[in-house]
Write a structure and sequence with these properties.
6 helices; alpha/beta; 34% helix; 181 residues; two-stranded antiparallel ribbon; five-stranded parallel β-sheet; single chain
């Protein structure tokens, strides 16, 4: 049985929901463990056959703790059994849902010392009723500017689960050697 580590940085939970979906898609031959990057975990990458890092965008940026984690574990993250995906609302638009078309991934690759070999970009979810007043107002303004949903009574999931399935298959097929081993 292969051991997989899921590391996540999530604001509203869609990133973790995507990881749950990936865990199901991987199947029973994989044992998956979750760690929240915001908790600043101590990680022994050598204990895992594969590692997947998922991070969401909020107001145009990844959480600062993601970059702190990357700086701390840069050497281990650079192994060929480690992959990355980004979750954002801009990815709901065609062309913005690929590493090449995502402005967030382009900025990430410039800012980050880690250059993942496998990168996914997935649309997130809009959860107006769950947001506080400030977030609801700001996100509504952003969505109005970008042509998205502005009805604050709605929750809309933009995640393309078929695309997540395709990414999962590539993740399963990528190099599988223990980190540091």
């Amino acid at each position: 049985m292969e051991k997989v580590l899921f590391l996540f940085s999530s604001c509203e939970g869609q990133t973790k929901k995507i990881l749950n979906y990936i865990e199901q898609a991987l199947g029973e031959q994989y044992s998956c463990e979750y760690m929240n990057i915001h908790d600043e975990p101590n990680v022994d990458f050598r204990a895992y056959d594969r590692v997947l890092v998922g991070a969401s965008i909020r107001y145009g940026h990844f959480n600062k703790k993601l970059y702190a984690f990357i700086n701390k574990y840069q050497a281990q993250l650079s192994q060929d059994n480690v992959a990355f995906f980004c979750v954002n609302l801009t990815a709901r638009k065609e062309g913005k849902d690929t590493p090449e078309g995502s402005a967030y991934i382009k900025k990430f690759l410039i800012k980050s010392p880690w250059q993942p070999a496998l990168i996914g970009v997935f649309a997130g979810a809009l959860r107006y009723p769950r947001y506080n007043f400030f977030d609801r107002t700001m996100i509504k303004l952003i969505m109005k500017i970008t042509g998205g949903e502005t009805d604050t009574t709605k929750e809309v999931e933009y995640t393309d689960w078929q695309k997540v399935s395709e990414f999962t298959q590539v993740f399963k097929q990528q190099g599988c050697r223990k980190v540091g081993g």
